[in-house]
Structure formats: structure tokens, C-alpha cells
């Protein structure tokens, strides 16, 4: 096994930079730099020197001994001054040492997975945590990273193993008198797991939104003040505004943290009948993106004239409230009136939606959960035909168990790993 190293902290100027080494030579390579033997675990302040004795930097050297480390291997961390030059010179020294090489993206985590330090869902949770920008994303990632999906999968797996073994006991004693009918217990175990699987699979759609962001589209007539409103919400001039109707044509996207939720606001072309070819392309795009969005803000007196269907949770606000006598239900991107109210309204609607999910977060999870569920549905159907078909029911249960094992990465995921780890940054 190669010993790998990489900069674990971000590139660029910082107080401290962390270079991590993992593998059989991690401790000796660090000791070569410090010129002294390091303890198998612990930390020491040391001066780092190059092979010719020239001084590189002072730093804190941490050592972890296998298997009690992030990767499960011997690990050393060099915490040096966070300058580009200091990092470069130390990395250069490491790359010249025999048996050491630069890590590939995600390679530390990949080793942690291979050494059983985390399961595949935790790897995904770690990737999400590193990408997390908002509170909702952080919390969701922490749940997965803590291994809660793996724990659930293990519980389902135990229940299904028990159910399958009950059936197998009946099969094994086929010629003798079996004292009890096992069907009720098997049925209870299987239906219990199926309910959990279904609830988790249904929650994935919302969890995906928390990972990738909710889309909220602003729609209205031309000149309603959509772009002005977007700019007010974003706190910067993201879109061009003007007194000419038909200013916005492309969809303008602004990513925001809205009360802890990741939201992408969409400013769209004003919706009207027009002969202008390019404006029409914009209007077509506006309608499509608005229909696909998670929520729509109708900036208009009359939502029905826009040709975009308004769903029950969608929000209507009256434009340019500063020009109105009655400001009730109105908003003004110009004066800021009603903006806080709109933000609260959006985050309330999305907040309610985002609490109604379970632990599974990805399409990959949903597929595995549904696969398991399909096999269990077949198992239940076969079970009703009586003991003659118990072996088929047990086989369906084992198929479901294998789907759950794929969920946590215990089996059949080799082809997935490259894809998952390529999304990791270097040094993780
Ligand atoms: N008084 C007042 N004027 C506004 C308000 N919002 C926008 N305006 C003005 O209305 C005009 C149109 O504003 P935009 O933000 O470009 O409107 P839009 O809906 O994006 O227009 P299109 O992109 O052309 O569909 C500009 O002259 C703005 O200054 C508002 O709340 N109050
Ligand atoms: K305009
Ligand atoms: Mg506009």
C-alpha cells in the first residue's frame, strides 16, 4: 500500500495549513522531516528540515496509529504556516521521498471506507458536509455522517434475516410436524420494514432539495418589478432593471441562504403576448422554469393572466406597494416594503416541507430502498401461498437484504466508487 499525502486545508494564504500523510511510511516520512523519532500517537512542536539540512518551517506534528485514525492506517499531520511557499516546499520534500505520492481526490476517505472506518452513506454525508453552505444542509449531512442511515439499514437487515430464517426453519423440517405457524411473525417483520423503506424513499425528494437547493421563481407581467425585487432580495444588483417592458429575457439565478435553507431565486421574463422573437424565447423559458420550480412568487394583481398555474402554496404579492394607497399584501423592491414579510413567507413554506423527510438523501438511496421494497412485496405475495413456496419467499428476502447491503456499500458498489470519490476535493 502506497503512503499518500496531500494538503488537507484549502489552497492559499491562511494562518495554518494542514498536510496529511497516510500509509505505512507516514510516521517515518514525518520523522525524516523533523529529524527525530515521533511518538506513535500524540503531538509535538518540531522544526522541519529538507534533506540537505536547510530549515523549512516550524510546525505541529500529529501522529495517529493504525487503526485508530481517520483512514485506519498510520497517519501523520503536519500543521505548518499557511503560506503558499511554505506548503510548496514541504510538499516538494515529501514528493521526493521514496514510497510517497500525492493522494488522488477523495483517496483518504476511500481508504477509510475500505478499512471499515465508515460506510458508503457516511462517505456521502462527509461529501455533503464539506459542500454544506446552509444550516439545513449541515444538519442533514451530519445525520448521514453520524451513520444513522447505516444503523437503520442494519436494523432492517436483522429483521429480514430473522424473517428468512423462520421460513428456512419450516423448510428444513418439512417432513416433520411444525409446532407453530410462522407466517404471522414473518408478515409483521416484513411489513414493518416495508413501511420504513417506503417512508424513507418518499423523503428523498425533499432531502435532495436540501442538498441542491429549492428553486423559487418570481413571475409577473413585464415591468411588474421582478428584477428590482430579485435585487432587493439578493442585496445586490444581480439583474438589469429598466423602465422598458421586456428587459429580462434569460432566467437570472441567485443562490441565497434563506433562514438556513438553500434557495435559488429565479428572475424571469415578463409574461405577455409579443411579436418579438427573442422575447418570446424568454417567455417560453420563464413559463417552463416557473412550472418546474419548487415555489412561485406571483408579483401581480391577477395571477390567472400569466399562463402559469398557481398552486395552493404559491405566494401572491401586489407589485409596487409604494405607489399604492393600500399597502396590504403589497411589496416594493424599490423601498424594501414587504421584503422581510416575503422572506418569512417563503422560508415558512419551504421550512415545513423540509422537515417532512427521513434520513435518506440521494437518488442512489431511493433506488436501493425501492429495490428492497419490491423484493419484499413479492415475498409477501408468495408467502400467502403456503409453505410450499417458502423457499421462494426466503430468496426474495435475501434479495432485499442484498439491496440494503448495497445501500451501505457492503456489496456491489465498485463501479460507483470512482464516481462518488471524484466529487471529493483533493486532500479529503
Ligand atoms: N415605484 C416603484 N417602481 C418600481 C418598483 N419596482 C420596480 N420599479 C420600476 O419599474 C420599472 C421596471 O422594473 P423591473 O424591475 O425592470 O421590472 P421587471 O418586472 O423585471 O420587468 P421585465 O424584466 O421587463 O419584465 C423600473 O423602472 C423600476 O425602477 C417598485 O417597487 N416601486
Ligand atoms: K423592465
Ligand atoms: Mg426584469
From TrEMBL:
Alphabetical GO biological process terms: tRNA methylation; tRNA wobble uridine modification
Protein name: tRNA modification GTPase MnmE
Task performed by this protein: Exhibits a very high intrinsic GTPase hydrolysis rate. Involved in the addition of a carboxymethylaminomethyl (cmnm) group at the wobble position (U34) of certain tRNAs, forming tRNA-cmnm(5)s(2)U34.
InterPro entries linked to this entry: G_TrmE, GTP-bd, GTP-bd_TrmE_N, GTPase_MnmE, MnmE_dom2, MnmE_helical, P-loop_NTPase, Small_GTP-bd
Cofactor: binding details: Binds 1 potassium ion per subunit.
E.C. number: 3.6.-.-
Binding site for (6S)-5-formyl-5,6,7,8-tetrahydrofolate: 20, 77, 117, 428
Natural source organism: Ruegeria meonggei
Gene Ontology, cellular component aspect: cytoplasm
Transmembrane regions: none
